[in-house]
Amino acid sequence: MKLKTMTDDERRWQAVLSRDATADGQFVFAVITTGIFCRPSCRARHALRQNVRFYADAQAALAAGFRPCKRCRPDALSPQAARHEIVARACRLLSREQPLTLAALASTLAVSPFHLHRLFKSVTGVTPKAWQQAQRAQRLRTALAEGETVTDAVMNAGFSASSAFYRRADATLGMTARQYRSGGEAMSVRFAAGYCSLGVCLVAASERGICAILLGDSEDELTASLQRLFPRAQLQTGDTAFGEQVKEVIDRLETPTSALPLPLDLRGTAFQMRVWQALCEIPAGETRSYQQIAQAVGQPQAVRAVASACAANKLALIIPCHRVIRQDGALSGYRWGTARKAALLRREAQQEESCSISLPKPNPGTSR
Fold first, then answer.
1. Tens of pLDDT, residues 248-300
2. DSSP for 173-188, written as a single string
3. At what angle do helices 102-109 and 128-145 cross, to 10 degrees?
4. pTM of the model
5. I want to staple 125 with a disulfide (CB 3.0 to 4.6 A). Which of 22, 98, 154, 298 is the partner?
């Protein structure tokens, strides 16, 4: 029996009877006839209910005079917590400037490289190498934004040589290092606006594909928003051919029955890309909580980070962040207004169509 929370002794007892491992860490139970306390998942023979007492944690049971079970060791980290601690230590080591190979990292953590690789990916959703590359890319972006020279930023970020960076520059920054340092200068972005049932829709595209779909009440408002997203890019009004692309986008927003037949220019961290992919897997007419999305991407504690990833979405409806609501069912903030969010959910509940878009494979170095 899987219990999300343990709120009373009866539920705790049911968890003990079913040896529910998901309850480990939420409480411990003690047996007054043996003087021993255990985890809910302990495989030892069950005691009589009248002889069982519940405590919030091992410290409380110890304070009450009970001894820890030698079989389930409730005073130590649970197996799941121990695995997460290994990954947390690995992340701290990978965040350092000095690059680490998988073998060196595994040796430091006293586990096998195979076990570490599998464990790390199961918890974070990415490999240790991808995590390290993402950390290196983030240091580089920060240094460039703070005005460091390209050469200094590249070396200080942990790249072994300038040549190693320049081979991956486009994937790491989405543009050249000098363009990124100047806020996207020399990057060309075409845009055009049209009207839809949700108000004004502005569509923008780089040379790679659609990079922004914004909703609002006026074209001027949305143009200003686009300028803030790409502060030094060369914004150009789209021509007639681009206007046809905008029409395709608006048609897709009005009747989301198929994937958008246009390339997308997605720029986000590895985590954001995983969140956006999870959003696209929510069928139209259904919703998920931020907690559910965090669990879907393998990081159940990252609820706030999921909310931030939703807020960072620049592609309205194509990446359906409007389908994420609070756990209590209330509509939370929406980049383009909660009224639009409510209207979208009502419309999709009637249409019951599926979002069939599939995002490119996440690249932890692709972020702006």
1. 778 777 765 556 666 777 777 777 888 888 888 888 778 888 888 988 888 88
2. HSS-HHHHHTTSTT-E
3. 110
4. 0.50
5. 298
DSSP class of residue 111?
Answer: S
* The two structure tokens encoding residue 254: 């009005």
Radius of gyration of the chain (CA): 25
38 classed as catalytic: yes
Burial (0-12, 13-18, 19+ Cβ within 10 Å), 32: middle
Which uninterrupted H or E stretch holds 234?
A: strand 234-237
- Tokens representing 193? 């606006």
Q: Is 228 exposed, middle or buried (0-12, 13-18, 19+ CB in 10 A)?
A: exposed
CB of 157 closer than 8 Å to CB of 97? yes
- Tracing tokens 């383009």 back to the chain, one arrives at 336
CA 222 – CA 104 distance, rounded (Å): 49
Tell the residue number behind the tokens 């411990």, with chain if given. 28
Query: Quick one: DSSP state of residue 37?
Result: E
Alpha-carbon distances, residue 37 vs 1, 24, 50, 169, 289 (angstroms): 21, 13, 15, 56, 35
* Ramachandran angles phi, psi of 163, nearest 5°: -65, -35
Question: If residue 28 lies in a helix (H) or strand (E), which one and from where to where?
Answer: strand 28-31
- Give the active site residue among 38, 69, 280, 355: 38
Active-site entry in 42, 310, 321, 355: 321
Cα–chain center distance at 269: 9
Helices (H), 230-285: 240-254, 270-280
Residue 86's SS3 state is: helix
